[in-house]
Amino acid sequence: MRVLKFGGTSTGDAELLIRAAKILEDNAKQGQVVAVVSSPNKITNYLLKFIEYKIKNQNTLLSVKDRKIECIFSNLLLDLVNIQPKLNFNYLKNFLKSEFNKIKKILYSIKLFKHCPDKIYASIFYISGKISVVILEEILKVHNHQISIINPVKKLLAFGNYLDYTIDIAESTRRIKLDQIPETNIILMASAIAGNEKDEIVLLGNNGSEYSAVVLAACFNSNCCEIWTNVDGIYNCEVNQVPDARLLKSISYTEAIEMICFNSKILSLKIIKILIHFQITYSIKNITNIKAHGTMISNYSNQFSNSIKGIFSLNNIVMLNISGPLLKHVIGAASKIIDMISKNNILGFLLIQAYSDYDINVYVLKNDLEQIKQTLKEKFKFEFTNNLLNSIKIIKNLGVISVVGDSINTGLNKKIFSALANNNINTIAILKNNSKSSISIVVKNSEIINGVRLIYRSLFINHKIIEVFLIGVGGVGNTLLNQIYKQKDFLQKEKKIKLCVYGIANSQKSLTDFKGINLNNWKFALNKTKKIFSISKWINLIKKHNILNPVIVDCTSSQEVADRYADFLSNGFHVVTSNKKANTSSWNYYQKIRKIANSVNRKFLYETNVGAGLPVIQNLQNLLNTGDQLIRFSGILSGSLSFIFGKLDEGLSISEATKIARNMGFTEPDPREDLSGIDVARKLLILAREIGYQLELNDVIVEPVLPLDVMNKIQCIDKFMKSLSEFDDVFKNRVAKAHTCGNVLRFVGSIEKGGVCKVKIDEVGAQNPLYKIKNGENALAFYSHYYQPIPLVLRGYGAGNNVTAAGVFADLLHTLS
């Protein structure tokens, strides 16, 4: 014997009704089946409006609804006949007309009295449910099935009020057995309906359809109850909180009880009690996706090795604190509160804290606050009046995250709390359940969604996620996106790292897609978009979408973007940048960025600020962190000037060398930016600050390649390039002079004792590690207590889109460490 329930989704659609009949037929081959059938969802909603309009005497709206209901029924019949030509159309048409006339008469009386008594309300919905049963009966008769219909008003005895009754299963079982239904018959019954002792029609309240199905399973001693609805089953998280939540194939009764507290849509405690008492397996299946496995609730669940079944949450929780030095002398205080919560059907959590004073905290839904506050005052009236207890303190805007599973252990607890702590979500309280099937955590209401997602990732996702928002799609940004595109599959498969590019922006436009931007055609999409780039909008977007590990990647040279790093960090972004402007801004801003990054546990990474793809910052920090001290530093920090001065060695003039460097892309579009030495000065300042020197950019002494007044005098770049020939002889003589001493000219940045920083053209000998550096290479020589007299030298290309983008990419991956 199997009991199946078909919800309002399937009964309002011809194809789904036919599918429901087919499911019944297939199950009937294995034994007798019972189908509990709901009225169509649309009909139920319209009937509710019908009653409302009748009471308000809104005739115009009523006639509109009237036509819509008749239209739904007539269209349903026509669709059914198209699929099942042998269906007894005339009988159904007349039956529907008759039943609908009954509804109209009832509604007319409601209009006259401007009131709808509960028992009248129940009778209207019984008629609509009975219609669904008769339609399904006729579909099954086409295939020569014998049908028996149970009248729930006569057979299911219930007690309570008209809109929320509880069924007497023992008496209902006795009544059903009196009919002696043949074993070959398919049994049908309208859902959510029962009868009281006066044979009046009553409703079964929330989850009434599912409740009546479970009751029938108990009455027929069935060990299986299938609920056919429009969802695949129960998920291990709210899909609107975690889009990639997983379907649970099975859960235990105790796990279901814990979930009910956080999601009453699953089923009710009234239902689960019957399932446990009669040991009924309860399956949830999708009528629109019959291939889906669904979710099974039974006495035992053995899904996967993970003992965690789901993460659920409640918003708008309020804490009531009862405290006082004499509370421990109040006999049975905790028991009284527990008893009070259960008697009032209030969802509540209790936490007893034993510190210097004795505290009891009660956590309840905001809607229950006034009721429980008043009840507490009455329950402990003597204690409050005689100052044995302090006044009740109330804290609002809280939420509860509950992790559900039949065997939560210490290791899982550690994962859960580490995930929250590492992302600065404060655990206000921990509420443990005696059944050991859940652990509930109190946090701020505003942190619920992020908390759920963080715990979900730590428990269910075996890869780490980086969510990228790129600003700047010039040479470096463009190359970075190509590198991500080529490498992302390898990283996900081999390293369990998932890279998602959610945002791409240039100085004007912004492209965002929180399903992940397609890197095959991002240029086309960015050009096509009409969205204007706004830093503030991006900050608001990650809050709106609750992004957990967002990374701003700045591949611009923009001061405006650099000035917003503090905002990015404080709003949850990591910042990865090749832009040197932030690290060379004022000392106060330099410190502010780092202070915020540390306080919010976000990364600020800028390896490419010095030496492009060379691991300069990382190695310097490693030295200092291990107790080494820098004595002095010298280095070639400009790829363009490395190239130019290398060409001077080979006999080229300064004008020729600069022209070649510009044509090959080594210099900025305006070579004066390189020749001024300011770029090297910025890099030198970053190194000096890393070492600990509190310096500003104007503290760096800069000797430019050419006098600044000469470079600034000519506005046109092309005219400036032609004027360079005026300095050919000057540099030819300087190079010759250096060569006579066995030296070469190099553009060097140095840091001496006390933090003296200089950028200038220098003569270096063959023993100097900078002697052979040319062709765009960088070289950095660190002389320290550990590394002397031979310095630690880092050497390699310090310019170029590929190496710079690779350095940015490496920093992106370091946000996970």
Structure, described:
This protein has four domains: 2-230, Carbamate kinase, CATH 3.40.1160; 308-460, 2-Layer Sandwich (VC0802-like), CATH 3.30.2130; 465-608, Rossmann fold, CATH 3.40.50.720; 616-799, Dihydrodipicolinate Reductase, domain 2, CATH 3.30.360. With 817 residues, the protein is of the alpha/beta class. 44% of the residues lie in helices and 22% in strands. α17 packs across α31.
Q: What is the CA-based Rg, rounded? A: 38 Å
What is the CATH superfamily of the largest domain? Answer: Acetylglutamate kinase-like
The largest beta-sheet arranges its strands as 3-6-2-1-9-11-12-10
| Total count of domains | 4
Tell me the distance between the termini.
56 Å
| Strand elements, count | 30
Instruction: Provide the structure class.
Output: alpha/beta
CATH architecture type of the largest domain: 3-Layer(aba) Sandwich
Uncertain segments are none
CATH topology of the largest domain: Carbamate kinase
What would the keywords be for this entry?
44% helix; 4 domains; elongated; Rossmann fold; Carbamate kinase; eight-stranded mixed sheet; six-stranded antiparallel sheet; alpha/beta; VC0802-like; 817 residues
Can you describe this structure in just a few lines?
The protein is of the alpha/beta class. It is built from 31 helices and 30 strands. Bifunctional aspartate kinase and homoserine dehydrogenase that catalyzes the first and the third steps toward the synthesis of lysine, methionine and threonine from aspartate.
